[in-house]
Design goal:
By secondary structure, the protein is an alpha+beta fold. The chain is built from 8 helices and 19 strands.
């Protein structure tokens, strides 16, 4: 057919070599010193060594999967003691600086940030120190709430079981053979519907962005007139876990191929973006769809939006200007930060526009943005998007 879309390669002024590079696997172990045990034997853990500094202070060493790498030193492990004991724990980053405020959990499911009176960053920021009370019960310590591939898959399957217009799919395998999963959301027939694509977790530690994605998608499925009319009109493809290997291995940034996946949307050298890109292209060809918007959820130091520069007019231009303004207008005491960017690197934002001429926004959430505000803002963002696009 003359309307068939083919997956394209693209040239950028500042490309990254995304050929596979070696990674260093952490040793899975339970370290026990003076009745205190540290354990990294779960999916989503990161702990490279555990040592005793003095009678009351322990050192947890945190290293990246390979280098060079973005400054996002992720850690996650459990601690326990045979007898009740207060300890100091130093997070040691031999190659980097501390970034994430520690989160604590008694069950691996419910988390809270450590109180500031029990935490400090030392010296040149390559070490951070926590004061912790331990006992026989496991205490989880992590840079961000642990949301490994099992938890993400359970969330997606629960949505597909709850809603009869949400379809769970395994679209392929990751580099190490983990499932690449998707949700396909539509009412009645998916044919000839315009498509919104939603991505998350290209970078493993970016959990606050994943939380925003969850709330955004949940708002699209609400039992109200706006959500129902929107899903009647549009088809939504959701890829909630782009990098399952990196997530389960506790990586700082990369996939099992040692590569930043959000620099591979031009030549598709890595299996994960290649599989997802081909699935999107094949799907819209099969059902005569048109991709009009791509949203990629990430985390960084503060909330912001990376958008298309104004000289690039998408098929729904000027959607993003009204959308971001609408989010700001709906949230008192909140001013959105919009950063239009040129196409310099092969990231998803450029791919959606170049491949489909779709509008595209990288939706960034701050690492430590309050979790209730993440949810609220994502719900508002979903409603404002639906209000604008339902009128097309």
């Amino acid at each position: 057919s003359c309307n068939t879309i083919k997956l394209k390669n693209f040239v950028y002024p500042d490309p990254t070599d995304t050929s596979t590079r070696p990674i260093q696997y952490q040793e899975k172990n339970t370290y026990t010193i003076n009745s205190v045990s540290a354990d990294n034997q779960f999916d989503g853990a990161r702990l490279n060594n555990f040592e005793l500094l003095n009678d009351s202070t322990y050192i947890a060493t945190i290293l990246p999967e390979n280098q060079p790498i973005n400054s996002s030193p992720y850690y996650a492990f459990t601690l326990q003691s045979e007898t009740p004991k207060d300890i100091y724990l130093q997070l040691n980053y031999p190659t980097n600086k501390h970034r994430y405020w520690p989160k604590l959990s008694n069950d691996g499911a419910h988390w809270k940030p450590i109180d500031s009176t029990y935490f400090e960053i030392l010296g040149d920021s390559s070490t951070a120190q926590l004061k912790l009370s331990l006992n026989k019960n496991k205490l989880w310590v992590a840079a961000q709430e642990v949301n490994n591939s099992t938890k993400v898959t359970n969330w997606t399957k629960a949505l597909s079981e709850k809603y009869n217009n949400v379809y769970f799919k395994v679209i392929g395998k990751s580099t190490l053979g983990r499932d690449l999963i998707a949700l396909d959301i539509y009412n009645n027939s998916p044919k000839k519907k315009d498509v919104i694509v939603i991505l998350s977790r290209q970078h493993p530690p970016e959990v606050s962005g994943y939380m925003a994605m969850q709330s955004f998608v949940s708002e699209l499925l609400k039992n109200n007139r706006l959500s129902k009319d929107f899903v009647n009109k549009y088809r939504i493809l959701v890829f909630p876990l782009m990098n399952p290997d990196g997530v389960d291995l506790g990586h700082w940034r990369h996939n099992a191929g040692g590569v930043d996946l959000n620099r591979d949307w031009a030549y598709y050298k890595q299996k994960e973006p290649r599989t997802v890109a081909n699935f999107i292209v094949n799907t819209v060809n099969k059902f005569k769809n048109k991709v009009v918007l791509g949203l990629d959820f990430h985390s960084t130091q503060r909330d912001l939006y990376y958008s298309l520069s104004d000289d690039n007019h998408s098929v729904i231009y000027p959607f993003k200007d009204y959308w971001i303004q609408g989010i700001g207008d709906a949230l008192p005491n909140y001013s959105p930060h919009d950063y239009p960017e040129p196409f310099n690197q092969p990231i998803t934002k450029g791919w959606f526009f170049k491949q489909f001429r779709a509008d595209s926004v990288t939706y960034e959430i701050g690492d430590e943005t309050p979790r209730d505000f993440i949810k609220l803002k994502a719900e508002v963002a979903a409603r404002e998007m639906m209000k604008l696009l339902i009128l097309r």
